[in-house]
């Protein structure tokens, strides 16, 4: 490879690049450190991508980059191929242990006239780095600088790594079902902004969305309903695996959630033996919460949970399994605690770390269990004192299903109206008073789907706010600034338009 770099170094024709400023590039999330050198790398048809080949994952990252460049610019770049005649410039994706950080997602970019060097310790870090590179490719090429069109990438150095190890978004596919393709499109958008976790809310009162082979009626019956009376739907295990793989190629883990012991009407309606309400069961397509519960004193219920966790764990590489546990208003408190403690053992038996909404901290949970804060900080504080890590999703600030304002077409407002600025101008790390920084696993933006049922509606609520949340979870608070952010956000329109994203055109942003 040294040879290739050297060969490329001997430029055939001297090009006079226009002055650039890497520090002004509209990158989101904003990188930790940017040092501009005011020249450019000319991405063109004679650019080749080389990667470290001792780790095949690095070559895959190179192929991913080549594919995005092909889709967008229609340039076919070699990955670990090409000859002296076909290669004049290179992008080298390099595995190295010396990126000056222990963070597995850290990367460094050195952008010069004839080479881009992307250093990362892991393929995951390299993948985050190529998102930065993608964001630096300009909309239009310069067609007069050389014999071929060149897309000028501003030169300089970027040193980057995230503040949070967990940067997630959630989609509720239970209230309304979203197809495999709709979910993939959302994952693509999340990957571009360096998310690394996608939490799927797979069951609720209104629907059960994942095939469980040992309990087939869950999908045959419970999968056929959704809010408003639509047809519902579910993922076969093969389809779920397809999503897991698709996300994994983007270094995003999928965290499956089966919500219990409340939010379980669809399961109990499919298998009445699970029910703990004693009331007459019927399919539910409304939007109330808190009326359903499993029978926490029945062995069959735990045999059921064991089967469900076992089957999902087997197709879910994420170390986490989310058991929900929220709003179990129809479960007696003692039963609830008993349930959470028993289910934690089941989750652990199948090799996973339990995650649950903040109510689970009422039980005696293991320090390895993660508490997902949404409404009651004291639960999270108590769990943190006992050693648990916390995922932060405070509804007033982080819920993607909250309306922007009273005129918003979709969404709810029980927690707050969340305009684009109030979604951005706060600090997750200090939001919960008294919660130590070491206890924070990360941040997640949940999107509940009572009021949305397709990609366009999903995107109206998620974008642009999910873009700002990506920055809250990646960039240190001292480096975040609303005025800088709103300018960079305005520059996302070419990407969002190219991706056909139905974002909400907030008046707070001077969209390009
Ligand atoms: C509360 S947040 C819920 C969900 C609803 C959401 C709507 C949480 C753990 N439970 O069941 O969908 O509000 O915003």
TrEMBL record:
All residue ranges annotated as the Glycoside hydrolase family 20 catalytic domain in the record: 164-476
InterPro entries documented for this protein: Beta_hexosaminidase_sua/sub (IPR025705), GH (IPR017853), Glyco_hydro_20_cat (IPR015883), Hex-like_dom2 (IPR029018), HEX_bac_N (IPR015882)
Alphabetized GO MF terms: beta-N-acetylhexosaminidase activity
UniProt-listed Enzyme Commission number(s): 3.2.1.52
Catalytic activity: Hydrolysis of terminal non-reducing N-acetyl-D-hexosamine residues in N-acetyl-beta-D-hexosaminides
Gene Ontology biological-process entries: carbohydrate metabolic process; glycosaminoglycan metabolic process
Family that this chain belongs to: Belongs to the glycosyl hydrolase 20 family.
Domain Beta-hexosaminidase bacterial type N-terminal: 26-145
Keywords (A to Z) from UniProt: Glycosidase, Hydrolase
Gene Ontology annotations for the cellular component aspect, listed alphabetically: membrane
Protein name per UniProt: beta-N-acetylhexosaminidase
Active-site residues (renumbered): 327 (proton donor)
Lineage: Bacteria, Pseudomonadati, Bacteroidota, Flavobacteriia, Flavobacteriales
Highest taxon above the source species: Bacteria
């Amino acid at each position: 490879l040294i040879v290739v770099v050297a060969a490329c170094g001997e430029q055939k024709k001297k090009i006079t690049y226009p002055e650039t400023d890497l520090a002004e590039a509209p990158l989101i999330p904003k990188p930790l450190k940017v040092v501009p050198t005011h020249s450019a790398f000319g991405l063109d048809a004679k650019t080749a991508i080389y990667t470290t080949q001792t780790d095949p994952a690095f070559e895959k990252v190179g192929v991913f980059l080549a594919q995005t460049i092909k889709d967008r610019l229609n340039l076919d770049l070699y990955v670990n191929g090409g000859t002296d005649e076909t290669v004049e410039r290179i992008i080298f994706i390099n595995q190295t242990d010396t990126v000056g950080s222990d963070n597995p997602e850290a990367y460094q970019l050195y952008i010069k006239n004839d080479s881009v060097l992307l250093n990362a310790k892991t393929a995951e870090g390299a993948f985050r780095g190529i998102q930065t590179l993608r964001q630096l490719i300009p909309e239009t090429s310069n067609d007069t600088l050389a014999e071929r069109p060149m897309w000028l990438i501003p030169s300089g150095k970027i040193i980057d790594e995230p503040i949070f190890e967990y940067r997630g978004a959630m989609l509720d596919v239970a209230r309304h079902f979203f197809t495999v393709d709709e979910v993939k499109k959302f994952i693509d958008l999340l990957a571009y902004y360096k998310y690394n976790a996608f939490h799927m809310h797979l069951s609720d009162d209104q629907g059960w969305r994942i095939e469980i082979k040992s309990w087939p009626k869950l999908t045959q019956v419970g999968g056929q309903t959704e809010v408003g009376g639509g047809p519902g739907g579910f993922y076969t295990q093969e389809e779920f695996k397809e999503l897991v793989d698709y996300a994994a190629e983007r270094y995003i883990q999928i965290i499956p959630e089966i919500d219990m012991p409340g939010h379980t009407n669809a399961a109990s309606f499919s298998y009445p033996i699970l029910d703990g309400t004693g009331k007459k069961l019927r399919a539910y397509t409304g939007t109330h919460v808190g009326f359903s519960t499993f029978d926490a004193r029945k062995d069959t219920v735990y045999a059921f949970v064991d089967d469900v966790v076992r089957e999902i764990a087997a197709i879910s590489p994420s170390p986490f399994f989310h058991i929900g546990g929220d709003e179990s208003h129809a479960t007696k408190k003692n039963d609830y605690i008993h349930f959470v403690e028993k289910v934690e053992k089941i989750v652990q038996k199948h090799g996973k770390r339990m995650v649950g909404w903040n109510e689970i901290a009422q039980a005696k949970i293991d320090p390895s269990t993660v508490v997902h804060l949404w409404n009651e900080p004291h639960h999270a504080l108590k769990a943190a004192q006992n050693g648990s890590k916390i995922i932060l999703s405070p509804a007033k600030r982080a819920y993607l299903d909250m309306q922007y304002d009273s005129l918003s077409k979709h969404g709810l407002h029980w927690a707050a109206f969340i305009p684009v600025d109030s979604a951005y101008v706060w600090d997750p790390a200090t939001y919960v008073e008294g919660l130590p920084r070491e206890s924070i696993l990360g941040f997640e933006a949940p999107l509940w789907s009572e009021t949305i049922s397709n990609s366009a509606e999903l995107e109206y609520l998620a974008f642009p706010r999910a873009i700002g949340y990506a920055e809250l979870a990646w960039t240190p608070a001292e480096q975040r600034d609303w005025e800088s952010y709103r300018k960079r956000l305005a520059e996302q329109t070419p990407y969002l338009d190219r991706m056909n994203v139905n974002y909400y055109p907030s008046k707070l942003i001077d969209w390009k």
